[in-house]
């Protein structure tokens, strides 16, 4: 088979892949927009702030700012402002790293962890609601199918 015939044979599959990507993107944007609105309305918070609290909740011993930035795939500057506000609100604190005067670990306070648990519980229900109440098996099947579509080494979910 020549290169041009091989391309022609893949064309319908490529178009379907493109359609799938556009559908995934549309759903992602819709879900994210709705989550942003609900977090603002119900908890007077933002999605980036929720994401920072989520990362800190998973790493209860704390994270360096650089680790937090890397985990969230955002710049140190983006994280610094959010952590500053969380600290001002008594939801997070900076703890010096022994032997490194420039570094600090960031941890949620007990109040921060409590607030995050409340937000996370609502977030989970909202996602289920926004996705039309997919049954557990349906959601698992779609997640598994999408996992197979990932390029090897890029699965961090």
Description:
By secondary structure, the chain is mainly alpha-helical. The chain has a single domain (24-149), classed as Winged helix-like DNA-binding domain superfamily/Winged helix DNA-binding domain (Arc Repressor Mutant, subunit A), CATH 1.10.10.10. Helix content is 69%, strand content 11%. The chain contains six helices and three strands; from the N terminus they run H-H-E-H-H-E-E-H-H. It has a three-stranded antiparallel beta sheet with strand order 1-3-2. A hairpin with a 2-residue loop joins strand 2 (92-97) and strand 3. Helix 3 packs across helix 4 (76-88). It is globular and about 60 Å long. The model has no long low-confidence stretch (mean pLDDT 88).
